[in-house]
Sequence to fold (132 residues):
Amino acid sequence: MKWYEDPVCIAAADCPEIQDGHVLEKGDKVYVKSKPQTVVDAVAQFFGGDQFVKVDDKIISEDRTVWLPDQSQLQAMSGLTWHDFDILCWSVTEEILERQGNYPSKEMAGIRAIMSFKYNKVWSGSKWEIEN
Fold:
């Protein structure tokens, strides 16, 4: 399964801390809420200041989509150097491996790293919670 098809990764990315403030750009991966299991490359279109995504020649409002950031976008969001971001992601990967016995995608590790590093939140398996 590709990282952008993983329902857990999609759910983890669907939070204000990740979504707010991002302006869609051509090529962004976007999950379309109204069409389950549909991930498209965004074609950012602007009309009256609003952003839209076009799917199957139909315009989908941005508020019905989930932006799925890739590794470079996550690194930029972190404010860290690539080296420091990789170290942070690896520590998250080790934690997930120890608890769940499987490797997360680099994107899922990146989302979890940002949420922990910047917002002091951990993924419960279904939602973000404040870390104790």
Summary: The CA atoms of residues 35 and 55 lie 10 Å apart. Confidence is low (pLDDT under 50) at residues 45-50. The helical segments are 7-13, 16-19, 71-78, 82-100, 106-119. Strands lie at 29-32, 39-41, 45-47, 50-55, 58-61, 65-68, 121-123, 128-130.
